[in-house]
Amino acid sequence: MSHPSHAAAPPVVRVRDLRVRYEGEAGPVDALRGIDLDVPRGSFTAIMGPSGSGKTTLLHSAAGLQTPTSGMVELGGADLSTLDATRLTKLRRRRVGFVFQAFHLLAALTARQNVELPLRLDGKRADPRRTQALLDRVGLGARGEHRPHQLSGGQKQRVAVARALITDPEVVFADEPTGALDIRSARDVLGLLRALADGGQTIIMVTHDPVAASFSDQVLFLADGVIVDHLRRPSAPEVASRMATLVESAERAANTVEIV
Amino acid sequence: MLRSLAHHRGGAVASGLVAFIGTVLVTTMAGLLGTGLADTTIGDDKSFLTQFPIILGGWVVAIVLFAMVSTVGVALAGRVEEIAGLRLVGATPRQVQARFAGETLTVAAIAAVPGLAAGMLMGGFVLDRMDAAGLTEPGTVYAPGIVLPVIAAVLVLAVSVVAAWIGSRTLANRSPVADPEPAAPTGRGRNRPRRIAAALLLVAGLGSSSAVLGMDADDILTTAMTGPAVVLVAVGLCALAPELLLLANRLARSGSNASAHVARINVTVVPRRTRPLVTFLVLFVGVSAGTLSMQGVENGHAAPGGDAQLLAAINYLVVVLLGAFMAIALTNNLMASIAQRRAEFATMSLVGSTHAQTLRMLLREVGTGIAASVVAGTLGAMACVVPFAVAKTGSPAAAFAPLPYALAIVAGAAIALVVATLAGRRVIRTA
C-alpha cells in the first residue's frame, strides 16, 4: 500500500517492498511482508497495530536501526542498504532524531549534556544558547543541570525530545514515546510533538494508544506485517474503533490457525 | 540452582575460575604442609616445610576471600533486576544472600574437584623445584597425604560462601525499587568507614616497613616486615580507588572530542564502573613491583646461599602466584563490569556514537584507571621498599631500580588494555 506525498516535494522516508523475516524456533516468521510507504516532509504519521503486527520492526528498519531482509529504504534521498554500519550511524546522528519509550538517556550526563551529545559525537560544538532554547521549548529550561535520576518520567522524555531535535533532523522517530508516562505527562509530550509537526518537523510515531495517535495527521494500521488501513485527521474514538476491529480479526485468524 | 547458574554463565565462570585457582594454590600449600609434617621428612626440612606453607597459605586464603568478594559483587551487579524481583515477591535480604551463597558454593564445589587434583600435582612440582634449587634435602619426598589437601579445598569452599555472603550484602539489602544504577554521588557517610580502613591499612603498612630502619641489615625480620607491609599498603590504596580515579581524572588532559568528554564525565560521576579495574591493578602493581624490588635489593646485598636464597625463592614464588591470581581476578572483573554496560553502549549507539567512538570512550576510562593504579601502586611499593633499601645498603637508591616497576606496570597495563579492548569490542558490537 502506498501513501504518495501530497506535494511535489520528495518524501523524507521512502520504503519499497520492505520485508523482514526472523528465524524463529518454530520456523521463519515474516514480521514485514512487502511494505510500501512514502512519508511526506512536515507530516506527523502514527503507526498502529496489534501486538506482533510489525510496527516496531517497520520503525527500526525505516530508521536504519535494523537491516531488512529485502526491499529498499530511502532516508532523505539516501539508500540505507548502501551504507556500512559507521556511515549509517553518521547518517542517523545527523539526519534522524529518536524518542523511545525507555528514554535512553545516559545516567552520568546532565540533561544539557545528554541533549548536546549527538552534536559532540558529530565533532561539532554545541551552541549553549541553542541548547537552552531547546530545553526552554520542552519546558525544562531550569533543569539543564539535573541528571536523569533527578527527573520524572515525563521530564526525561522531554529531555529525549530536546536531544532528538538538537541536530535539526529531517525526521524524528518515536517508539511508544508515551508508553511509560502517566496521562498528564503523556499529554504534555504529545502536545510537544504536535507543536513540532506544526512547525514543519516530520515525525513518525509507533503507538498502541488511540489518544496518542489522534495527535497525528494520519494513522497507518499494520496487521500481520502489511499496512491494511489508514486514517487521515484521526480522532481517538475512530482510531479505537478501527483498532478493535483489527485486534478482533487478528484473534479470529489466530484461533482459526489453532483449530486447523 | 544449576538452571539459575546456566542463565548467568559469565558470573559463574568468573567465580568458578577464582575458586579453581584459589583451590589450586591453597591445596599446593596444604600438600607441602603435609610433607612437612610427614615422618619421612628429614630434620631441617620439617620446620621449613611447615612454616613456609602456613605463612604463604594464609596470605593466599586472604587474597582468595578478597578476590571472591569482588568477583561475586561484580557478577551480582548484573543481576539487580532478578534480586529486585525476588525481594518484591517477599524474599528477605537474608534469603537473597543465602541463595547467592548457595549458588557460589555450587560453583566452587564444581571447581574444587579439578582444583584439588591440580593442587596436589602442583605441590609435588614445587617441592621438586625446591629440591633442584637445593632448598630441601634430597631425601625429602613429597608426602601430601589426603586429609590436609581436602581440608584446604573445604576451606576454599567456606571462603567462597563467606565471600558470596559479604559480596551480596549491599545489593540484597537495597530497596527493590531503588534505581539500579544511580548516578548520584555516594553519600559522605558511606565513604567514611572505607577511608578510615584505608588510612589504618596504610599506617600499619608504612609503620611495618619503617620499623625496618632500626634493624640490622642481616636481620631476617627486615624481609619479614617489609613483605607484608607491601601487601598492606597495596590493599589500603585499593580501598582508595574512587579517590585515586577522581584525582587521575582531574589531572588528565581534557580532550575535546565526544569520547573523551563522556569518558571524563563517567569517571567523575560514576567512578564505581572503573573501580574493580583500579582495585586489582593497584594490588597487582603494588605487590609485584614491591616484592620484586625488595628482592632486587636483597640480591645485591646478601651473600649467596642459606636463608637469603630460600627467602628469595619464596618471594619470587609469591610474586608469580599472587600475580597470576590478580591477573585472573582483574580479567574477570573487567570483563564483567564491561558486560554490564551493554545498555549504556546501546544508548550511545542510538544517539549516534559509532562503535569506534564508544570503544574510545571505554578505553579512555580504562586508561585513566590504569594511570591511577600504576602511579599509586608504584608509589606505595617504593614507600615500603625505601626503608628496606636503607637498612640493607645504607642508601635508598636501590629502592628505585626501574626494572621491577617496569615489569609490573607493563604486565598489568597490557592485561587491562587487551582485556578491555577485546571485551569492549564484543559488547559494543552486540549491544
TrEMBL record, chain A:
<keyword id="KW-0813">Transport</keyword>
<dbReference type="InterPro" id="IPR027417">
    <property type="entry name" value="P-loop_NTPase"/>
</dbReference>
<keyword id="KW-0067">ATP-binding</keyword>
<dbReference type="Pfam" id="PF00005">
    <property type="entry name" value="ABC_tran"/>
</dbReference>
<dbReference type="GO" id="GO:0005524">
    <property type="term" value="F:ATP binding"/>
</dbReference>
<dbReference type="InterPro" id="IPR015854">
    <property type="entry name" value="ABC_transpr_LolD-like"/>
</dbReference>
<dbReference type="InterPro" id="IPR003593">
    <property type="entry name" value="AAA+_ATPase"/>
</dbReference>
<dbReference type="InterPro" id="IPR003439">
    <property type="entry name" value="ABC_transporter-like_ATP-bd"/>
</dbReference>
<dbReference type="GO" id="GO:0098796">
    <property type="term" value="C:membrane protein complex"/>
</dbReference>
<protein>
    <submittedName>
        <fullName>ABC transporter</fullName>
    </submittedName>
</protein>
<dbReference type="GO" id="GO:0022857">
    <property type="term" value="F:transmembrane transporter activity"/>
</dbReference>
<feature type="domain" description="ABC transporter">
    <location>
        <begin position="13"/>
        <end position="249"/>
    </location>
</feature>
<dbReference type="InterPro" id="IPR017911">
    <property type="entry name" value="MacB-like_ATP-bd"/>
</dbReference>
<dbReference type="InterPro" id="IPR017871">
    <property type="entry name" value="ABC_transporter-like_CS"/>
</dbReference>
<dbReference type="GO" id="GO:0005886">
    <property type="term" value="C:plasma membrane"/>
</dbReference>
<dbReference type="GO" id="GO:0016887">
    <property type="term" value="F:ATP hydrolysis activity"/>
</dbReference>
<keyword id="KW-0547">Nucleotide-binding</keyword>
UniProtKB/TrEMBL annotation, chain B:
<feature type="transmembrane region" description="Helical">
    <location>
        <begin position="54"/>
        <end position="77"/>
    </location>
</feature>
<dbReference type="InterPro" id="IPR003838">
    <property type="entry name" value="ABC3_permease_C"/>
</dbReference>
<keyword id="KW-1133">Transmembrane helix</keyword>
<keyword id="KW-1003">Cell membrane</keyword>
<feature type="transmembrane region" description="Helical">
    <location>
        <begin position="227"/>
        <end position="248"/>
    </location>
</feature>
<dbReference type="Pfam" id="PF02687">
    <property type="entry name" value="FtsX"/>
</dbReference>
<keyword id="KW-0812">Transmembrane</keyword>
<keyword id="KW-0472">Membrane</keyword>
<feature type="transmembrane region" description="Helical">
    <location>
        <begin position="104"/>
        <end position="126"/>
    </location>
</feature>
<feature type="transmembrane region" description="Helical">
    <location>
        <begin position="277"/>
        <end position="297"/>
    </location>
</feature>
<feature type="transmembrane region" description="Helical">
    <location>
        <begin position="403"/>
        <end position="423"/>
    </location>
</feature>
<feature type="domain" description="ABC3 transporter permease C-terminal">
    <location>
        <begin position="56"/>
        <end position="176"/>
    </location>
</feature>
<feature type="transmembrane region" description="Helical">
    <location>
        <begin position="196"/>
        <end position="215"/>
    </location>
</feature>
<dbReference type="GO" id="GO:0005886">
    <property type="term" value="C:plasma membrane"/>
</dbReference>
<feature type="domain" description="ABC3 transporter permease C-terminal">
    <location>
        <begin position="318"/>
        <end position="430"/>
    </location>
</feature>
<feature type="transmembrane region" description="Helical">
    <location>
        <begin position="146"/>
        <end position="166"/>
    </location>
</feature>
<feature type="transmembrane region" description="Helical">
    <location>
        <begin position="12"/>
        <end position="34"/>
    </location>
</feature>
<protein>
    <recommendedName>
        <fullName>ABC3 transporter permease C-terminal domain-containing protein</fullName>
    </recommendedName>
</protein>
<feature type="transmembrane region" description="Helical">
    <location>
        <begin position="309"/>
        <end position="332"/>
    </location>
</feature>
<feature type="transmembrane region" description="Helical">
    <location>
        <begin position="370"/>
        <end position="391"/>
    </location>
</feature>
